[in-house]
Amino acid sequence: MLSLALVLTVLGLLGGLTAYGLWEFRTHQKNLHRIPIRIHVNGTRGKSSVTRLIAAGLRTGPRRTVAKTTGTTPRLILEDGSELPIHRAGSPNIIEQLMVVQEAAARGAEILVVECMAVQPHLQWIAEERIVQSTLGVITNCRADHLDQMGPTVVNVAEALSNTIPRRSTVYTAEGPLLGLLHAKAELKGSTLLSCDPESVSDDELARFPYIEHKDNVALALAVCGHFGIDRRVALEAMYTATPDAGALQAYRVRFFAKDLTFYNAFAANDRDSTVMIYHRLGLKNRPDHPVILIVNNRGDRLQRAEQFGELIASDLDAQHIFLVGDFTNATHEIALRRGVPADRMSDLGHGTVEELFEAVVAQVPRAATILGVGNIGGMGREIVTFFKNRGEEWSKKPLASGSYSA
Questions:
Q1: Fewest Cβ atoms closer than 10 Å to its Cβ: which of 74, 155, 216, 376?
Q2: Which CA distances in Å does 263 have to 127, 186, 270, 372, 393?
């Protein structure tokens, strides 16, 4: 039998932990109340970019604005637009948001714009209901990604994302196909869902961004800024000068001896719909004199995505040659072969070096080519982007009449 002393010790520890939990909860509630406006940005694609754009526009107003992104490289964006990196001891954990709220409150922030970092549905609910308790919501879009955790269908994804809709407030979205579902979820929480039209942003306005931004992202950010009385033109000017996320769609032109390469970093668009959308928006066409070359990178914790990209490169993306790098390349390779991609059009480089990849790519280029990096920015993706960035120059793009882009 347990001794009385041991029982008392255990009870004492439990009591201490309970007391600490209550103290932490009350402290967090006080921090939240010190920040009157809290904007929770969720969605499949574009969360980091939209968070940055909203914060840039709101910084032109009278309220001190702090933002936090979770994307490619997590950052705390301060009221003057400068940034602090967020260092993690282990894997990402939504408890990180408690510290973000604490820091924002300590800095006297009146507005906090925070990107949702939860994926699993129950964690998205906790992130909103227990941690952020937003006063305004944003859902960028609902697409078929993280189906292993939110699926199996895109409808399940939309239901999971709706867990961050605030109660008795307003939520903005650029979602199209599942707009009705989001409307219904918002009504259940006593909130109003407002849809943003991407075509409200002109090609000329979009062309002024120093990187390749998306109309739906800008439309969402402008709608939120307008909600708080920020003039559209003033907000746009601030957005043009804001620091883009590391995963933003950017292009670099590399001249290597007599060959001309234009590389597009689309690694962060790591679901099928977003990747196909970018391919067409860029106006890419695979021609003998100017081929399209794909670099598909995958992370070790994304087996399902590796399989999805095997189907994607077989049915939706026209390319002269496909280079597979990173993890699970065999899965992508096998599925693409079964779907009819000729073996001589694919090269499985696995965990080879970026230099080896570059030499293999150059060997496929006649005189000029467009190279599109897709799949995932993690792992080798960042190395590839850095390599092309250091070797080349940022490439200015030309808006087409349709609003898409051409190299």
A1: 155
A2: 37, 41, 17, 6, 10
Pick the closest to residue 296 from 315, 309, 277 (CA basis).
Answer: 309
pTM of the model: 0.83
Residue intervals in the chain for CATH 3.90.190.20: 250-406
Decide: 358 and 387 in contact? Cβ < 8 Å.
yes
Q: Which helix (H) or strand (E) holds 37?
A: strand 37-42
- In the CATH scheme, what architecture does the domain 250-406 have? Alpha-Beta Complex (3.90)
30-240 belongs to which homologous superfamily? Mur-like, catalytic domain (3.40.1190.10)
146 vs 319, higher pLDDT: 319
Where does 116-222 show beta strands of DSSP type E? 136-139, 170-173, 192-195
> How many angstroms separate the CA atoms of 132 and 135, rounded?
9
88-117: per-residue pLDDT in tens? 877 788 999 999 999 999 999 999 999 999
Q: Token pair for residue 226?
A: 């307008």
Q: Tell me how far the alpha carbon of residue 291 is from its chain's centroid.
A: 28
Q: Rounded distance, CA 273 to CA 21, Å? A: 42
Residue 124 tokens read as 């998205």
Q: Are 68 and 75 in contact (CB under 8 A)?
A: yes
